[in-house]
Structure formats: structure tokens, C-alpha cells
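User: Hey, quick favor. My workstation is busy. Could you predict this chain's structure for me?
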Amino acid sequence: MNQPEFSFDATVPATGFNRWQQERREALQALARQLGLPLGQEVEVWLQGGVRLRGKIRLREDGLFLSNEGQERLEFVVGETFFTAAEIESCIRRD
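Assistant: No problem, here it is.
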């Protein structure tokens, strides 16, 4: 079994890593569009129970890979507060 290796030679571009980063950014943008949430942007979020949060919305855990499976388990964070998509009553982007 072959063991893949990283090349640390400065003359060789890190195309694999760069490609992975680009694919991950695209997957995050697709997820944000699908959920209707402006991930990475300043927002005002109203949660169930009348809780209002202001700040940048992002995924709570930034795993290595994003998939469409298990979206109901995704958690988001604004400031220090964690919540799921089901808890969101409204989310408005703030400029």
C-alpha cells in the first residue's frame, strides 16, 4: 500500500491543499445558500424564546469536510451562543 506524501519543496505549489481549500469554501457557500443563512457575515438573529443575537454567524464546528447529510445536526454560533437552524425564527444580514 502506497503512503501519500506531502512535498515541502518551496518550488512545488501546494495544489492539492489549495484545491481542497477552494472546494471547502465552495461547499460552505452552497450550504449557506441552501439554508438561506449568510454564513460569515454580520447578522441579527432572533431565536425561539425571543433571544436576539448580533454578530458574525458561522458554523460552530468547522470540520474537515462538509456534506448535505446531517444538516439538522449542524450548529451555528453568533458570539458565544450556539444554536441549530430549527431554533432560528429570523436571520437578517447587517451591513
